[in-house]
Inverse folding.
């Protein structure tokens, strides 16, 4: 992965309702410091919000206590609090920061991808100048090659397999599986790539668990092949096409993150 030396934090982080609740808890200040250190650790790992010592060794509570230089009991209470507030998910002993995308600077990431693209183009130009009989073996795959491989994997995976790649609420995952079954009954089954696009669109519409469930259930009840903002229910009650409404001014909405 491209090396990223930063994460993005909002200047009103201490006005966040979850952070304000944590501040009032015993050891609240220590728990907030642990939260910030956990975000930085996720940025250092740089794997979609996952936090691990190595890919084979997940962080245990004891390892985190040592890493953060905090008492074990405080770290245990902090992780429990983060999980209850849906700030993290713990799956197969792996910690995943929820809504990791909002801590990333999109413009800087795009700049890194562009730099990678230029390095790849330069390498290919140099390779074309070499003798046609010379075989060059690349020991390290470039970031662009990895992206291509990932896209191919998404296309080859089933919708259910693709869904397992996302850190999402269990209730939302089950609702998406119900949606996928509905699509099958409509004789319009979903590919792995289609499921990835649907999850990303759902995350753009809302980061809240209950709202995401309501959006999915809305599409199931109406037999829609995609997901749409909840405020489109009135306009669609008269039979209008949600896909065309999505392209109009009525499709504009504001995303609010709780974390």
């Amino acid at each position: 992965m491209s090396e990223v030396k930063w994460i993005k934090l909002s200047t009103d982080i201490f006005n966040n309702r979850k952070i304000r609740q944590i501040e009032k808890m015993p050891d609240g200040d220590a728990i907030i410091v642990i939260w910030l250190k956990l975000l930085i650790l996720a940025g250092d790992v740089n794997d979609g919000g996952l936090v691990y010592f190595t890919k084979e060794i997940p962080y245990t509570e004891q390892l985190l206590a040592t890493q953060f230089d905090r008492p074990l009991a405080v770290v245990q209470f902090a992780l429990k609090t983060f999980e209850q507030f849906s700030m993290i998910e713990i799956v197969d002993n792996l910690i995943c920061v929820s809504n990791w995308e909002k801590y990333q600077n999109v413009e800087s990431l795009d700049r890194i991808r562009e730099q990678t693209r230029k390095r790849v183009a330069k390498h290919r130009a140099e390779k074309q100048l070499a003798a046609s009989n010379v075989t060059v073996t690349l020991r390290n795959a470039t970031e662009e090659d990895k992206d291509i491989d990932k896209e191919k994997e998404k296309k080859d995976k089933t919708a259910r397999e693709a869904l397992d790649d996302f850190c999402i609420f269990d209730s939302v995952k089950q609702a998406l599986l119900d949606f996928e079954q509905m699509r099958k009954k409509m004789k319009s089954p979903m590919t792995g790539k289609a499921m990835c696009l649907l999850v990303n669109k759902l995350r753009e519409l809302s980061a809240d668990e209950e709202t995401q469930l309501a959006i999915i259930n809305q599409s199931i009840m109406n037999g829609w092949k995609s997901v749409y903002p909840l405020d489109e229910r009135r306009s669609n009650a008269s039979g209008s096409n949600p896909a065309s409404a999505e392209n109009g001014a009525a499709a504009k909405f504001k995303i609010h993150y709780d974390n």
Notes: The CA atoms of residues 232 and 250 lie 7 Å apart.
